[in-house]
Amino acid sequence: MNLNKAKNWRDAVCLIVDDKTSNFKCFTSGEVTRTIREERLEMKVSVPDVGTYLRELFYNGAIMYGKNSAHMVPKYARGIYNTPYGQLIYVYAPNQYEGEMHNFEIEIPKTPMTKFFHGSTQKQKISTMPSRTKTASRSTAELVATVHADGRLCIPGNVFLAYARKFGATITPGAVVFAGEDTSFHPSKILISTNANNLGATQKRYTLTKDLGRIKFTPANGKMSWKTGDRYPVELTRDLITVDIMKPL
User: Fold this and answer.
1) Could you tell me which residues are beta bridge partners of residue 75?
2) Element housing 89 (H / E)
3) Directed axis angle between helix 9-22 and helix 29-39, to 10°?
4) Helix (H), strand (E), coil (C) string for 140-171
5) Burial class (CB in 10 A: 0-12, 13-18, 19+), 53
6) What whole-number distance in Å separates Cα of residue 219 and Cα of residue 217?
7) Is the model's pLDDT at 207 over the cut of 70?
8) How far is residue 38's CA from residue 43's CA, in Å, rounded to a whole number?
9) Domain ranges of the chain
10) Is the peptide bond before 187 cis (omega within 30 degrees of 0)?
11) CB 129, CB 7: distance < 8 Å
12) What is the pTM of this model?
């Protein structure tokens, strides 16, 4: 792994993730941040920023061990090093067992204020160019629901991550949401909420999968107005996540 090829810290994160997943090793945002600070001193990056970016990659299905999605295993710090006692930490791992056994508490070096090259102070410039690493190439910011081969409508994890970030909600893999059809429209809209009271009688309870944080929706009557491969835009409001079946992409 050569982080000198990274144009910015996001590129560096993706290079580290590619290296870890290729070798089937576990990692956390703290471990990734430490590697960047040790190998690219001029890059200013925080553990929370890296953690947010890793979750975005994860929910977009961009962290893969071989052909399998990574497991995101929640653990709590004991306060041994930098991380405060009780802080929630996510371990990315090839399987649940290895994630639970991973020793994630490490000493994370502080970000240096400056780095000097030939007598001048250099400041990092964050590139807006998209990363070309394997991990980043699998990621997408689109909020789109897609019909899978089994006929169910998949609302991906990045939708729930976007909702959580926009409205400050807590929606993580394993969380419960409710989904139902808005029968005032035909074809109907699919409405999703963390509050069952926001939906009508056709609602169903779903649990976000622990691997990708997504759900697969099936209409209450079993009748589907879509076919495999169909794609629909997703809209976010404070009370609802709406899949607009009336506007296929």
Assistant:
1) 89
2) strand 88-93
3) 120
4) CCCCEEEECCCCCEEECHHHHHHHHHHHCCCC
5) buried
6) 7
7) yes
8) 10
9) 3-137, 144-243
10) yes
11) yes
12) 0.52
Kindly report the number of other CB atoms within 10 A of residue 197's CB atom: 8
Contacts for 97 with CB less than 8 Å, ≥ 6 apart: none
Contact 240, 193 (CB under 8 A): yes
Count of residues in the chain = 249
CB 17 within 8 Å of CB 32: yes
Per-residue pLDDT of 58-75, as tens digits, reads 877 788 898 888 998 888
Q: What is the band of 17 on the pLDDT scale with cuts at 50, 70, 90?
A: very high
**Cα–Cα distance between 234 and 232 in angstroms, integer?**
7
The CA dihedral of 169, 74, 208, 201, to the nearest 10 degrees, is -60
**How open is the CA angle 158-145-242, to the nearest 5 degrees?**
85
Over residues 164-184, the pLDDT tens digits come to 878 877 777 788 999 988 867
User: Which residue do the tokens 């006692």 mark?
Assistant: 85
